[in-house]
Write a structure and sequence with these properties.
The complex is a heterodimer.
Chain A (H helix, E strand, L loop, with lengths): L2 E4 H11 L4 E4 L6 H7 L6 E4 L3 H13 L4 E6 H6 L1 H10 L5 E7 L13 H7 L3 E2 L4 H18 L3 E6 H4 L1 E5 L15 H4 L3 H24 L3 E4 L6 E6 H11 L5 E4 L1 E3 L4 H8 L3 E5 L5 H8 L18 H7 L27 H10 L4 E2 L24 H11 L9 E5 H17 L5 E6 L28 H7 L4 E5 L4 H13 L4 E6 L15 E2 L18 E4 L2 E4 L9 H5 L5 E2 L5
Parallel strand pairs in A: 2-3, 2-4, 4-5, 5-7, 6-7, 10-11, 10-13, 14-15, 15-16, 16-18, 17-18
Antiparallel strand pairs in A: 1-8, 6-12, 9-11, 19-22, 20-21
Helix pairs in contact in A: 1-2, 1-7, 3-5, 11-14, 15-19, 16-17
Chain B lengths: L3 E8 L4 H14 L3 E5 L10 E9 L12 E6 L2 H6 L4 E10 L6 H4 L9 H7 L3 E5 L1 H8 L5 H10 L6 H11 L5 H13 L1
Parallel strand pairs in B: 1-4, 4-5, 5-6
Antiparallel strand pairs in B: 1-3, 2-3
Helix pairs in contact in B: 1-6, 1-7, 5-6, 5-8, 6-8
The chains are: A alpha/beta, B alpha/beta.
Amino acid sequence: MKTLMLGNEAVARGLFEAGCSFISSYPGTPSTEITECAALYKEMYAEWAPNEKVAMEAAFGASLAGKRSFCAMKHVGLNVAADPLFTIGYTGVNGGMVIGVADDAGMHSSQNEQDSRHYARASKIPMLEPSDSAEALAFTKLAYDLSEEFDTPVFIKMCTRVAHSQSIVEPSSRIEVSKTYEKTPQKYIMMPGNAKLRHPIVEARTRKLIAWAETCEINRVEAGADRSMGIITSSTSYQYVKEVCGDKYPVLKLGMIWPLPEKKIIDFAKSVDTLVIVEELDSFIENHCRQLGLDCIGKEKFSCIGEFSQNLVAEKLGVDTVAGTKLDAAIPPRPPVMCAGCPHRGLFYTLAKNKVTALGDIGCYTLGAVPPLAALDTTICMGASISGLHGFTKAGGADEKKAVAVIGDSTFMHSGMTGLVNMAYNESNGTVIIVDNSITGMTGHQQNPTTGFNLKGDPCTKIDLESFCRAIGIRRVRVVDPYDLKQCDEAIKEETAADEPSVIISRRPCALLKYVKHKKPIIADPNKCVGCKACMKIGCPAISISGGKATIDNTLCTGCGVCAQLCKLDALQAAKEV
Amino acid sequence: MKTQNIMIVGVGGQGSLLASKLLGRMLLQKGYDIKVSEVHGMSQRGGSVVTYVRFGDKVYSPVIDKGEADFIVSFELLEAARWTEYLKPGGKIVVNTQQISPMPVITGAAEYPQGLAEQMKSAGLNVDAFDALALAQQAGSSKAVNIVLMGHLSKNFDFTEEEWMDAIEKSVPAKFLELNKTAFRLGRNA
């Protein structure tokens, strides 16, 4: 029966139908829903790993055991998993292994817009690239067949617009696939003697895959009457091209983006007057065409920055578009903000007040960088706050005041803890603040090793952050409630003054978690308020100034009381709980 | 049928995902090709959010571009004004008159523009502005603004109320079903 599915949901359905039985991932927008949806099928084991490297290695282990396995990550997560990636490319697989990676052209929720296709070429691992949900399902199943036929892991490459768009799919039933493990040292022990034997096998595999790419159905030519131009494209760019041109020009639609066919592309180029390459981000297909000696139009017209749309493609191809009406009024931007009641707010207010240099990390708390809090100095990648703090402190970046790192509970488990080991081992003097909101917040509430629950929602081993930090050699470890500004202030002043590394765990669950009970909204007393705007310093979306007085939006306020602590005139007061 | 384009815009957290889910369900029942493009991740945290719903005989692009939207359904007044450029000439803006100040307005760095509904009308745009929040509260929850808006939008399509109710039943949890049905009817009759 036809149904609407998100691209990511369709990948999960593909995993189910292909007989995949082991999934290990780390959440990251726009890849998260693949694993969340897969976890709903009882036939498949699915877990959140602490990071993408662990996830990929676990998926390899499951493949070794003879099962069809999968791991998913966002584009930057693939950097974390790059170490096993390049060598699993050599060993190949036992049970089929598929790696889901989701790019974020346009950076809707990412710190860069790297193009994951380069990883396919660099690691010599084939990559399939669906352009809608139906293909996401079909390509995922095909990826397992290719994986086992060619003895290689296979990428499924998503992008935001395919991952987060719903379109129609027709699900079918599941097959069961299982092999047995046999000890094969030459294939799986990649010490130099064996690896030297594997590399030529990998190169031969690529030549076989190119031969497959020449004739496979997913690299298809769609006929067009007007041969003055021919377009090579893939993924969501294909959809924009078809939206604009319909069936006017011939289109070579590539479903496998690496390795690319040669003869098929040369024949296509010969059949048209001008060859145009429409691809988001880097010139990947274009470079291949140029290597084949083909003249083409690519990045000279279509930018390597940001995502495309139908109007952008139309404009570049000289097709007219319809203009809309823009208002004359200046429309203020609406950037994302920390939610009302966010436990991070009190901590960031205190950091800003104490003018502490704060190296940030990846998560909701990156929003602590936004005015009026403006409490962060850096955001690079997962875990970089702590390792960066170590270097910054050792190099004398923090003078009279110590600098701090701010990192979430999930990010700390992902790759913050090795940085903290470095701080203990090499004795640097910073303060690490773990903002523990008891969930992976930004990606939409995923469990992690510190929450005590697994992906399926069942209770499991809970890593104790205090014991962990002490065990690796941090002597000063304390816990504060970020709703208590005085407690936060004391902790930050004392720990940054201490002559050794320290950890402050700022602990309170995310205000959006279902089990978190909100208090009644704060009551603003207009008779006491003088409009001093002290309460506005925390950037709470529930507080605004109306008629010169502070007012509370009762639909947003969670009664956290942080604002009330800033009001010297008691104009903001907690409501009596019944 | 030529592809129809509906943009649902608002502030992250206002419930636009349920609105697009309901629309998708309805259109699937009617046998159209459909694409619905959503926003997840950072923008959901109180930022400006947009969902694209497209349907017709064959839909390619998952997004709606400037000058293409047959309808813009806005959960908030400023957000309607932000996206007017995406409206097709002759298209219609269905907007909840609720105003939610963005952070630059809250901090005093910018002003919330006055008289936006009138400005949109005097720019020649077809604007259907109404207080969806009041109707949602009347139905029993301010969170039902999304369904009130869908009810109001439904007046522009030939689908029957029964078909919509059927789609609502398949889109919302049972314990909120009656509330949402009431919210839909209030929006449809407004």
